[in-house]
Amino acid sequence: MILTGNLLIGRASVPGTQAEIRAINPATGESLDPPYHGGSTSDASRACELAEAAFPFYRETSLEERATFLDTIASQIEALGDALIERAMAETGLPRLRLEGERARTCGQLRLFAGVVRSGEWLDVRIDPALPERTPMPRADLRQRHVALGPVAVFGASNFPLAFSVAGGDTASALAAGCPVVVKGHSAHPGTSELVGRAVQKAVAECGLPEGVFSLLFGSGRVVGQALVADPRIQAVGFTGSRSGGLALMATAQARPQPIPVYAEMSSINPVFLMPEALQGRGKEIAEGFVASLGMGAGQFCTNPGLVVGIRGEALDIFIEAAAEAVKGSSAQTMLTPGIHGAYRDGIGQLAGEAREIARGQAGSGPCQCQATLFATTAADFLGSEALQAEVFGASSLVIECSDAAEMRAVAAALEGQLTATLQMDDGDLEASRLLLPILERKAGRILANGWPTGVEVCHAMVHGGPFPATSDSRTTSVGSAAIHRFLRPVCYQGLPGDLLPEALRDDNPLGVRRLVDGKREA
Amino acid sequence: MILTGNLLIGRASVPGTQAEIRAINPATGESLDPPYHGGSTSDASRACELAEAAFPFYRETSLEERATFLDTIASQIEALGDALIERAMAETGLPRLRLEGERARTCGQLRLFAGVVRSGEWLDVRIDPALPERTPMPRADLRQRHVALGPVAVFGASNFPLAFSVAGGDTASALAAGCPVVVKGHSAHPGTSELVGRAVQKAVAECGLPEGVFSLLFGSGRVVGQALVADPRIQAVGFTGSRSGGLALMATAQARPQPIPVYAEMSSINPVFLMPEALQGRGKEIAEGFVASLGMGAGQFCTNPGLVVGIRGEALDIFIEAAAEAVKGSSAQTMLTPGIHGAYRDGIGQLAGEAREIARGQAGSGPCQCQATLFATTAADFLGSEALQAEVFGASSLVIECSDAAEMRAVAAALEGQLTATLQMDDGDLEASRLLLPILERKAGRILANGWPTGVEVCHAMVHGGPFPATSDSRTTSVGSAAIHRFLRPVCYQGLPGDLLPEALRDDNPLGVRRLVDGKREA
Fold first, then answer.
1. What is the DSSP letter of B31?
2. Nearest-angstrom CA–CA distance, A232 and A256
3. How far apart are CA A241 and CA A266, in angstroms?
4. Which three-class secondary structure state does DSSP give residue B87?
């Protein structure tokens, strides 16, 4: 498939007119063809116009139609074959195996949502039948279902060129909910984005859906993105990226005449708590697991373990020594973009001024090569410094030495919101963990024991979310089947004649969905 | 029970130190004893401190403990006896029957949420068991439950001194979710608020809960309210009131270092669509129903039908004539406060400058007496005027004369978000209604056929919500059992030892809750 360098607006392939965007192979510094040109605000407006035009039809597609569409997107992405993997490798510096795994996750995610759509549980059908004889007042017939919010703007993430980009989690859950999607592709991987975008375009056509169900825009700077979020036809926003980027979108969304929800996943340092007995018994083993998690994907995971909290002493020293050895032995890796690489260098430079450097990984020779870095500091210094609490995107982590378990809890209590919090614990740590758990529950969307936060399972129980600033809205998740609820709202129908009721709410339950009738679950 | 005029901060009864707040009997203009003095920002801070201290315990109370607490509040409110009704009558000018009904609704609401808590469905338990043999990667054990957000600030509404005030819907749903509540009582009914607040205080003591589970503050102006919303311990806000008040709270909540959700119910004109055949066949009967709904509670319902849309012609003329007769015959009613009465007079004064006045109800002689008022205008004029689309709180409504069904739809499409939209329709109107319905679904939280929007059933299928500016968050409801979801967030537990898991998530399901296991519903 030959890349065009164009925007995809509905079924059209349109050359951009704004500043050029060039993918750069971060491993070589080589600039990749074709050039992409950013969309204008009128391109954004046209995409929103088509999305709005598609919405009345798309939101009322049958469960089976919509599920088939999601399945078709997955098949079309697979049909891109190795060209997709090769382009993504060139644009991101990520290795083949990782990208093949990410493609499998992306397609699995689409198919998971197809299943979610088919089940109809997301409709949350509730029926309170009329009680005409009730005194002192009769009750009308009342029925509730959920409906789609409207067109959604999705921002592709840099660090998951497939799973959180053009047809990633936000797109899949919004389409599942019945919302047309306008994606702003990330400028770091426009070719990968175009390939996936064309796969979605094909699926739209194959399924006979209105073209506006999907568009893909590019744009450097914030012009196109802000135009999308400000567009009155956009009704929700999905974003994964920097804290400053997320805050800017939140501000724009709130300043609209009609404010809209923004689901921004922004910043997390994912603390790991080394509980005393675990640290004592298997500190070296934990250190190896930790450094493996730290280095995964060159540390460019939202769930990268950027903080390790333990009690000062011999066991912690042994852990630090083992972790330092592993870090020193770790190879340099290619980061996604020169910008991300530069920010990582700046970030560890700042940390170096505030904490003591324990170890640094092997130097690389390419232009975007990063070395894993390990720092340490005391709890007192950590608690006194905002800089030490800020996320450094990349394979950098900070060990916090606490005087006792109470100080570990104080560190936990002082943290900002997180995507994850991890306990390394053994049986003897149960009571100490029990004291820590309620603190962590208020800080994080996911709590792990004896695992590592990198690697987010796409399933029903997953929560990839958490209190601000991990995300802008702790009430939802961006990964897993529950993400569909982000793009829905309830509507109640009172006394409607059966012929006017949506199919989901009819007495004979033609969709066969589970219902809450008069407060009781139907079998 | 003798009123103290005090703030209730935890278990303490504390005199306020700020400007005096005096309830006024709107029917007589008489100022009522005792004087209340507003709380200071340090009172607000103290209430939040207690709420925060109570939270770790309260959020983990058992289902039965929390349900019993809600039941106990209802019993304690009932135990206040007629003193509550008499004080509420004096403070609001609302008639006895209405307030007795509202008390029943308030207590019923608390007991409904007790049932919701007991069922445990709100936990939304999901379990994805470990798959250690899965290739290429094993799956960890993943479990999800919902937890309470944290302390909640609730603002009492003027127009429901019981059902949307101190122990009203927002308080009941927040307490049900496991959130301590700090109420700012409405200055129009401080005595009613104190009585109910003391009933809640008693229930807290009777149930052996930490005192900070509930506090009640007073304050004129916005100082105490803004202090509550800005307090870092407050994690969500429930508000029913004016658009300007709601927007101010939203701005404060967004400007916090950690933004929090605000559930503000603000403004709705609740359009009623007179479909041609219904208008033709029973215009007079509809007119009577309409004027009865319009005048209910002196028009001081959020769901008051402030807009009637029909097609110009003889049938609409007959409807207008009948409605005008009914309005002219309607008695003056006492509005809640001099301020609300003044705003109503200003509002109908403005309408009178832009639309033609059709009828006005009978004049009253007391200080806060309002006359129902009916206006009419053309669709073209309505579509061209923002003022005509603004809510006038009170028994005022505007008939829009359209040239045809298409123009009715254009009016519907131009509306802001609404709590309700109503169709008056007969069998022959089915096709025209089918065209209107998708437009209304995007505008309103509840759609009625052949009923009236006033009178909101507290049940499972109810949606009292809707797109902005009806509310600040269309994804939820403020009335009905689904309101509990406003105050919850999901947490995922990965690989936790059984001994550390919350009860709701244990293998043996000790709470007996319905669970989604590996994506399948357990029987």
1. B
2. 8
3. 5
4. helix
Q: Which ranges of B169-242 would DSSP assign to H, the alpha helix? A: 169-177, 190-206, 223-230
For the segment A235-292, what is each residue's pLDDT rounded down to a tens digit? 999 999 999 999 999 999 999 999 999 999 999 999 999 999 999 999 999 999 999 9
Taking CB atoms and an 8 Å cutoff, what residues of chain A touch B497? 425, 427, 430, 449
φ/ψ of residue A399, rounded to 5: -90, 130
Is A302 noted as a catalytic residue in this protein? yes
């990984």: which residue's tokens? A361
Q: List all residues 6 or more positions away from B165 whose beta carbon is below 8 Å from its beta carbon.
A: B156, B157, B183, B185, B186, B189, B192, B193, B196
From CA A446, how far away is CA A423, in angstroms rounded? 11
- At B250, the amino acid letter reads M
- Which residues have CB under 8 Å from B175's CB, separation 6+? B66, B69, B70, B73, B113, B181, B213, B214
The one catalytic residue among A265, A391, A401, A407: A265
Report the C-alpha gap between B211 and B192 in whole angstroms: 21
**Which chain B residues are within 8 Å of A124, Cβ to Cβ?**
482
Task: Report strand pairing: B7-9 vs B12-14.
Answer: antiparallel
Taking CA A75 as the corner, what is the angle to CA A69 and CA A79, rounded to the nearest 5 degrees?
A: 140
B49 with B43: CB under 8 angstroms?
no
3-state class of B224 per DSSP?
helix
Angle at B126 between CA B122 and CA B129, to 5 degrees: 160
Q: Does B495 touch chain A (CB under 8 A)?
A: yes
Distance from CA of A1 to the nearest CA of B (A): 30
Beta carbons of A497 and B521 less than 8 Å apart: no
Residue spans of beta strands (DSSP E) within B56-202: 125-128, 142-148, 152-155, 181-184
Select from A259, A492, A514 the Cβ nearest to the Cβ of B463.
A492
Say yes or no to pLDDT of B504 above 90.
Answer: yes
- Give Cβ neighbours of residue B203 (< 8 Å, ≥ 6 apart): B69, B72, B73, B75, B76
**DSSP secondary structure code for residue A257 in this structure:** S
Query: Which residues of B are known to be catalytic?
Result: 265, 302
Q: Rounded to two decimals, what is the model's pTM?
A: 0.97
Q: Is the dihedral of CA A304, A306, A310, A315 positive or negative?
A: positive
Question: Do residue B474 and residue A489 have CB atoms under 8 angstroms apart?
Answer: yes
- B285, B291 contact by CB (below 8 A): no
Largest CA distance in chain A: 82
Nearest CA in chain A to B467: A258
- Helix count and strand count (H, E) for chain B: 15, 23
For B402-420, how does the pLDDT look when each residue is reduced to its tens digit (9 = 90+)? Answer: 999 999 999 999 999 999 9
ipTM: 0.97
